[in-house]
Specification:
Elements (H helix, E strand, L loop, with lengths): L3 H20 L14 H5 L11 H12 L21 H13 L10 H18 L5 E5 L2 H16 L4 H4 L7 E6 L4 H9 L7 E4 L1 E2 L4 E2 L1 H13 L3 E8 L11 H10 L3 E5 L24 E4 L1 H4 L7 E5 L3 H7 L30 H35 L4 E8 L2 E6 L4 H14 L5 E5 L2 E7 L7 H15 L4
Parallel strand pairs: 2-3, 2-6, 6-7, 7-8
Antiparallel strand pairs: 1-9, 4-5, 8-9, 10-11, 11-13, 12-13
Helix pairs in contact: 4-13, 5-13, 6-8, 6-12, 9-10, 13-15
């Protein structure tokens, strides 16, 4: 058993360990050795009958768990988009966990609800959004699912939740092939079905959805008796950083009366820098959008900012109000559980408050600008080396490249050599069906030297003369 005095001692000890862990991360390989079953085999098959000392538990954490972890906070984590964890965010999570509040309703946590409202206003101002109302979701996937459910209900006159889909027309949702797979999953879960996610071709260097093709697809579906429901655009697609022309795409959606949602999960955070906002010009016409402060703003996972021009359709889609969830004797309150798929909600606004106050917008801008500058400098360096070719040019801090004149198997083998080496971590993706390497700078503590290390590793492991 653990009393509160022991809790306090261990809290201090783990905080000290955490600080040292972060200070020494560069000495660790970024990705754990991929040995399936290694951790599971090392753990006891059955739970203990009697309690064990924290000393033994923590020792096992270090010897059994840590060696099997990929270090997402490593400054040379260039794969995916890092789920950053800054010191103030970690402290806020500690406080939130200590309080243990369930923030589903205003009355169950008034300060948490009201702070969430204010923090979403702060964040909207930081990225230049006007006329939107915000809610914190656990992830962009949940926000997108909520948006697709609104598309479904709005198209069906809000009859889907009550009558089901079996007797309804086939709904259609439109997106390019560059959108994240969370859109596919939202289409599955909503009951719309994968066959009814219509892929619109892309064009131009930003791989933008073709608005003329979008309009033609909607018209063809109407003629065929389908029921168009919504359009999902992306800003900073996960694979290559694709950005749709929002002005053109959202004009088409509006002309057909369709609900529009913009997935800016990673790139949206960059809009705290005014010079990057051209990438989402026209965003004010969207019905909803999402981006993740937990990706590039240093806020502990999980924290997704979901914005809506009008929350009423979302509330009409999701709200259930049994008597035990009603707050009597108050007016004008917001119950954010009516804006979210889960009823239960954590106190996520606290870590956003801590991070924004600790760093301020200008320090966050400085870090993002550096990430973009360093990534683009690496892309330029690769572009001048005859062993490499840039496949998709940098969008903010993301670009793709490949070994010149090499087959897919050689590209994948190169990725594997890089990640087995351990100094950096990259992933592969597909562009026009071909395997390419994907590079992105976004870990909060990455330095210019870390990006230069990436060049060193790529050059060494590619072999041959530059």
């Amino acid at each position: 058993m653990m009393d509160w005095a022991t809790f306090a001692r261990w809290g201090a000890r783990i905080a000290d360990w955490g600080a040292e862990y972060h200070r020494t991360l560069r000495s660790r390989p970024v990705r754990a050795p991929l040995i399936p079953g290694a951790t599971a085999t090392a753990l006891p098959a059955s739970p203990p009958e009697n309690g064990e000392a924290m000393e033994a538990i923590f020792a096992d954490f270090q010897t059994l768990v840590l060696p099997g972890m990929t270090h997402w906070q490593h400054p040379r984590f260039f794969a995916y988009f890092p789920a950053n964890a800054t010191p103030p965010s970690m402290l806020a999570e500690f406080l939130s966990s200590t309080i243990g509040a369930q923030c589903m309703l205003w009355q169950t946590s008034p300060a948490a609800t009201e702070m969430e409202t204010v923090m979403m206003r702060w964040l909207a101002e930081a990225v230049g959004l006007k006329g939107f109302h915000g809610v914190i979701q656990d992830s962009a996937s949940s926000a997108t699912l909520a948006a697709v459910l609104v598309m479904r209900e709005r198209a069906l006159g809000f009859r889907g939740n009550t009558s089901g889909l079996s007797s309804q027309p086939r709904l259609r949702v439109y997106a390019s092939g560059e959108v994240h797979t969370s859109i596919d999953r939202a289409i599955w879960i909503s009951g719309i079905g994968a066959e009814n996610l219509v892929r619109i071709p892309t064009q131009g260097p930003l791989r933008s959805m073709d608005p003329l093709a979008l309009d033609a697809a909607i018209r063809a579906d109407l003629a065929a008796g389908f029921l168009p429901a919504g359009v999902i655009a992306c800003i900073g697609g996960t694979g290559t950083g694709a950005c749709d022309d929002l002005t053109a795409v959202l004009d088409v959606a509006k002309a057909h009366g369709l609900y529009s949602h913009v997935d800016a999960a990673w790139a949206g955070a960059a809009m705290i820098c005014p010079e990057f906002r051209a990438l989402w010009q026209g965003i004010e016409a969207a019905d909803s959008l999402v981006f993740n402060p937990h990706k590039w703003l240093g806020v502990q996972f999980d924290c997704a900012a979901h914005y809506l021009r009008d929350p009423a359709p979302l509330v009409q889609t999701l709200a259930i109000r049994p008597e035990y969830l009603k707050t009597h004797g108050t007016d004008g309150i917001i119950n954010y559980s009516e804006w979210s798929i889960p009823l239960g909600r954590r106190f996520r606004a606290l870590k956003l408050w801590f991070v924004l106050r600790t760093y301020g917008l200008e320090e966050l801008r400085r870090r993002l600008r550096n990430h973009v500058k360093w990534s683009q400098a690496l892309a330029a360096k690769l572009d001048t080396d005859r062993r490499f070719e840039i496949v998709t040019p940098p969008v903010l801090s993301l670009f793709t490249f490949r070994l010149r004149a090499a087959e897919d198997a050689a590209q994948q083998a190169f990725v594997n050599r890089i990640n087995d080496d351990g100094r950096i971590y990259l992933t592969q993706t597909k562009v026009e069906g071909a395997t390419v390497l994907r590079f992105q700078v976004g870990q909060f503590d990455t330095t210019e030297e870390d990006v230069e290390t990436a060049w060193t590793v790529l050059s060494e492991l590619a072999g041959g003369a530059a």
